[in-house]
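TA notes, week 10

Several of you asked for a full example with nothing omitted. So below is the full record: structure tokens for the whole chain, then the designed sequence directly under it. When grading your own attempts, check the secondary structure regions first.
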């Protein structure tokens, strides 16, 4: 069972465990250090076979304390270890201080200060590993040395990525400088230009938001989450060391979501989307086609109907009982030539808006989709009718653009709506929120994509799904989920024209089947990535709906 944690939640979990008497801070630090060493040996088995040389860079807090443990353990394996400290020994927190002193009985600690970088290890001088234990979840402001750190570490890393003998960079908990809540680099610099990137990041107990959002995945290299004995976080039978591909576990109902004393309230948690809950959402019980809902997809003008047809196919494949495409009369022949199982209705009448109103008198039509290929002008015309019908309604693409320029239309949004912007559409709809997210992150925890999506959902009064490799879903209540297609779950080939239209269709299909918007969004986002992964590279949007049956089969 996993939730994705913020730094405050991680601290609260640690504090609760220590307060319960189950474990001490020193034991947790020891396990953290052990977890790092085990992960290094698991990642590069050759390093476990014989002693090597390592540099351990320690910082002024507990992250540095973990570093001293790593140094001691590697020394115990016969390694030659050089240790540097960024900070003053006298100011180390108690547990880190204990581990500093233990190390001092075994070797030297060289100062690592902003001005004096002469003491830095020569990256190519035969070290097998450089351990970055300068800052973890406690970073609250940019630190001046990060450019120097970045230059040194990245030159090592780029060599080692090419398979050469140069050092592997291992980040303890987070690459130093990365904000654990937002996945953004703290500083005025351009993100990533001066970021110390890791080959491997070893975090503890559960992934943090910063590992999965924004620049986190690129910065962390690979992510391993080590178990440090803070309680169950995985489904029974799952491996103790889980990679992010394995965090498809349901958040524990009533578990670490704020129900334990002292932990933050439920609305502060972010859920990893769970395979089990997806399976539940899409399972069909007995019934006839109308019990599985009737989805209506509004289509564009002649020659612009492809997007709506893709959406319709997605809605049908995910199991809506009926799917109808409604098109301008002039587009009837085009659509008829391309659709079979999907029904077709021309919007004939005084105006298309009136025709839509008539069509919506059929109460069995329980989910709508407006946007893909619709055209901004037609979206403006149809939106008032569609929104007045108060059906479950997906608004994507041109419908979002129409909403952006029109506060009166925006005011018609209701709780059964679901907005599915990509970053550009989001910036048009919520320019002030997007500007906050784009501004340099100068204090931690920095404003994150989760914060932005939550703020947007609260303003719109409906669920918002903000797309990307780190798709965030938020409800007006503050409930949030993250569907990250990163690390072992990466599917960059999903960035293909029309993929978003299929997502809108899957969403509409799930709404037609009776899911409420937040569940529909979480389920659809997960299935969308799974369909892409199941197909693999070479994917085009048309493949996505056709891949759904295979994904669904694997769920059952
Ligand atoms: N929670 C858990 O369960 C477990 C946590 N564990 C480990 O603890 C880590 C968190 O430790 P942490 O809280 O001490 O934070 P950390 O990242 O070491 O740094 C904070 C220190 O840096 C300072 N500081 C901040 N910004 C600065 C700047 N720009 N420039 C200079 N200084 C700056 C700040 O002091 P300040 O100056 O703000 O008073 C503070 O002294 C976590 O990542 C994990 O590795 C494990 O042991 C296992 C169990
Ligand atoms: N690098 C990526 N990895 C995984 N998914 C991605 C990536 N880039 C984009 N996506 C997903 O692909 C879809 C693209 O949708 P959208 O931007 O609306 O494109 P279109 O309008 O062409 O369909 C979204 O679901 C988005 O989350
Ligand atoms: K670190």
């Amino acid at each position: 069972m996993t939730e994705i944690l913020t730094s405050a939640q991680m601290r609260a979990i640690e504090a609760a465990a220590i307060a319960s008497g189950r474990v001490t801070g020193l034991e947790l630090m020891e396990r953290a250090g052990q977890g790092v060493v085990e992960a290094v040996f698991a990642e590069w088995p050759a390093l476990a076979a014989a002693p090597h040389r390592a540099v351990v860079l320690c910082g002024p807090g507990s992250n540095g304390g973990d570093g001293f443990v790593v140094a001691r353990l590697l020394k115990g394996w016969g390694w030659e270890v050089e240790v540097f400290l960024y900070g003053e020994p006298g100011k180390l927190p108690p547990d880190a201080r204990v581990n500093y002193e233990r190390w001092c009985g075994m070797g030297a600690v060289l100062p690592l200060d902003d001005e004096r970088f002469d003491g830095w290890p020569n990256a190519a001088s035969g070290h097998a590993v450089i351990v970055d234990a300068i800052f973890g979840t406690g970073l609250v402001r940019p630190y001046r040395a990060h450019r120097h750190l970045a230059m040194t570490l990245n030159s090592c890393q780029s060599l080692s990525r090419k398979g050469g003998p140069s050092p592997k960079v291992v980040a303890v908990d987070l690459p130093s400088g990365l904000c654990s809540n937002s996945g953004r680099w703290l500083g005025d610099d351009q993100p990533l230009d001066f970021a110390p990137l890791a080959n491997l990041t070893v975090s503890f107990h559960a992934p943090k938001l910063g590992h999965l959002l924004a620049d986190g995945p690129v910065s962390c290299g690979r992510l391993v989450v080590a178990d440090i004995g803070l309680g169950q976080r995985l489904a029974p039978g799952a491996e103790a060391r889980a990679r992010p591909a394995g965090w498809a576990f349901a958040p524990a109902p009533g578990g670490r979501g704020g129900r334990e004393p002292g932990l933050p309230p439920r609305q502060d948690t972010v859920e990893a989307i769970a395979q089990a809950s997806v399976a539940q959402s899409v399972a069909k019980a007995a019934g006839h086609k109308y019990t599985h809902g009737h989805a209506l997809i509004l289509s564009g003008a002649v020659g612009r109907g492809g997007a709506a047809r893709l959406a319709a196919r997605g809605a049908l494949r995910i199991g809506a009982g009926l799917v109808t495409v409604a098109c301008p009369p002039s587009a009837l022949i085009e659509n008829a030539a391309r659709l079979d199982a999907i029904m077709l209705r021309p919007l004939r009448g005084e105006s298309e808006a009136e025709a839509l109103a008539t069509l919506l008198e059929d109460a069995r039509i329980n989910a709508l989709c407006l946007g893909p290929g619709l055209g901004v002008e037609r979206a403006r015309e149809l939106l008032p009718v569609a929104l007045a019908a108060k059906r479950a309604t997906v608004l994507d693409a041109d419908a979002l653009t129409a909403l952006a320029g029109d506060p009166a239309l925006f005011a018609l949004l209701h709780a059964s709506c679901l907005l599915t912007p990509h970053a550009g559409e989001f910036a048009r709809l919520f320019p002030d929120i997007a500007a906050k997210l784009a501004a340099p992150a100068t204090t931690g925890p920095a404003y994150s994509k989760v914060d932005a999506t939550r703020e947007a959902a609260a303003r719109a009064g409906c669920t918002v799904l903000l797309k990307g490799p780190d798709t965030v879903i938020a409800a007006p209540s503050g409930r949030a989920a993250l569907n990250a297609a990163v690390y072992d779950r990466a599917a960059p080939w999903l960035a293909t024209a029309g993929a978003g239209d299929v997502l809108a269709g899957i969403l509409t299909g799930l709404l037609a089947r009776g899911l409420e918007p937040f569940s529909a969004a979480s389920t659809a986002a997960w299935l969308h990535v799974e369909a892409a992964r199941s197909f693999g590279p070479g994917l085009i949007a048309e493949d996505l709906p056709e891949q759904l049956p295979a994904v669904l089969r694997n769920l059952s």
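Residues 3-250 form a domain with the Rossmann fold fold (CATH 3.40.50.10260). Use that as a sanity check on your answer.
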